[in-house]
Specification:
two-stranded antiparallel ribbon; 3 helices
Length: 116
């Protein structure tokens, strides 16, 4: 929220995916300072520097997040059995039977979701 107030990001932009890997962003608003955003986000969440992670952002909220050290074992936000979905009411998380997906598969799923 403070970045919006400082004019460093328009929070009303379309939902996007931002990642610790600069090459893995999707629909990132052109006015967003990616490095500053990730610095603040990881500072608030205390994500270890050596963890790869991505987040689905909608307005001021992290809707979904995933982190990994090895690409296979994943850590999730809000929980392991939740997956983001989108419909006319927006993006939200829903429970689904636990399906083991790799970090890259989850990232791809989230990007495809936002392209719908």
């Amino acid at each position: 929220m403070e970045m919006d107030e400082q004019g460093k990001w328009n929070s009303e932009a379309a939902p996007f995916v931002i990642s610790s890997d600069a090459s893995m962003g999707h629909n990132i608003p052109s006015d967003l300072d990616r490095e500053l955003f990730m610095e603040r986000l990881t500072g608030y969440t205390e994500i270890p520097e050596d963890m790869d992670c991505f987040f689905v952002i909608d307005e001021y909220s992290v809707v979904y997040g995933c982190g990994t050290y090895d690409g296979d074992t994943c850590y999730y936000y809000p929980s392991e059995d939740m997956i983001p979905v989108i419909d006319c009411s927006g993006i939200y998380n829903t429970s689904e039977p636990t399906v083991k997906r790799s970090y890259d598969e989850l990232y791809g799923y989230c990007c495809e979701l936002l392209d719908k």
